[in-house]
Amino acid sequence: MKQDALVAVARAVFEAAGGAPIDPDYVLPADIPLELSGEAVRARLCVFQDYRGAEMAMRPDLTLPVAQREAARREAGEASPKTYTYAARAFRIPVAPDDQLEFTQVGLERFGYEAGPAADADLFALVHRAVEACGVQPSGIVMGDLTIFPAFIDALGLPGVTTDLLKRAFRQEGGVRAVLDAAARPLDTDVARALDAADPEAALGDVLTARNIPLAGARSVAEIVEGLEARRAAIEAGGLTQVARDTLLALREVDVPLVSAAAALSEIASAHGLSGAGAAIAAFGARAEAILARVPQAEKTARFRTGFGRRFTYYDGFVFEIMALGLAETQPVAAGGRYDGLLAGLSAGRASATGVGGVVRPDRMVRVRRVGE
To answer: Is 322 helix (H, G, I), strand (E, B) or coil?
Structure first.
């Protein structure tokens, strides 16, 4: 089956679920994906300047421009729930030699519906069905929940600056480990002096140059300064207790079958006396049960990882990727999740609504099917 045929099959699944066809803007102001994408994705954006000198970006996925359209609809006074579907091009610098810069995403986005375990499970089951309809059997499923780690951090009862630092660190690859390693160490003298300078960004830039440290991961000097200032404040507030260190080290290692994930999280919370994380764990467990009820085969293929789901920072809840044989771990055939705060972020708070969605990649499924023939 050729790619166009797979596009039609997947789109038919989403249209049958009530999706209204949409083809949103190809080009976005660059600050939208830059602010709402994680470090790994920022480095893959296709950015250019328009005739006015404004920095623009080709859409790196379809969720952002669809959400932008939905935010505008709600700002205009329309508040009804809305479901969209699309089969449209996205643009991202490839991470693998056999990926393309320009590729088609077929997806579904739902806004304004009641959020909860059932809604998340329904969305996942729909995307899983689209993959199967294209003749591809998932070989593995990775799931995450971006509410779990913050819930544990809140339950620890740490000072506010430390709590904020850890939550930001969670969004960066290796960030939590770096905070744990650095929590007991004061900042280097030259770094502390740079933060106290009249122009901290310029001063820190000089420190980085003197140390021959290049900027990496698309983080700006301003973001680095912000992180260092938060780290210094956390150290001054008392750093991390041993309970906090033990909890976070255990939590970041969770990588278990979905069917046993809620029990693993409950065990960590119980071992460290963190009853405050109970509500988040209960909601997680209810979702896992709902997913397994709708997609029974996921009991064998789905795993939960605490740190999974940070590449697009607009996700703020349930996240997942569906894998297939013959492709790298960085090349899922489908992905999606919940982003209840996205519309508010895009509209500066003028519009808000729940959001959940998922996409499939027909170009990758073509390759999977070829391998299986």
So the answer is: strand
pLDDT, tens digit, 9 for 90 and up, residues 131-153: 999 999 999 999 999 999 999 99
| Strands annotated E in the chain | 20-21, 27-29, 47-49, 55-58, 82-91, 102-111, 140-145, 255-257, 302-305, 318-323, 334-338, 355-360
What is the pTM (predicted TM-score) of this model?
Answer: 0.85
pLDDT digit string, tens, across residues 207-242: 888 887 776 555 678 878 877 777 776 666 556 778
Handedness of CA 4, 9, 14, 15 (dihedral sign): positive
Q: What is the torsion angle, in degrees rounded to the nearest 10, for the CA atoms of residue 110, residue 309, residue 288 and residue 133? A: 60
Residue 103 and residue 106: Cα distance in Å, rounded?
A: 10
Mean per-residue pLDDT for 318-332?
93
Paired tokens of 95: 């991470």
Contacts of 143 (CB under 8 A, 6+ apart): 258, 291, 302, 303, 304, 305, 308, 318, 319, 320
For residue 348, the Cα-to-chain-centroid distance in whole angstroms is: 20
Radius of gyration of the chain (CA): 22
- The one-letter code for the residue type at 197 is A
Q: Calculate the dihedral angle through the C-alpha atoms of 208, 211, 213, 219, rounding to the nearest 10 degrees.
A: -20
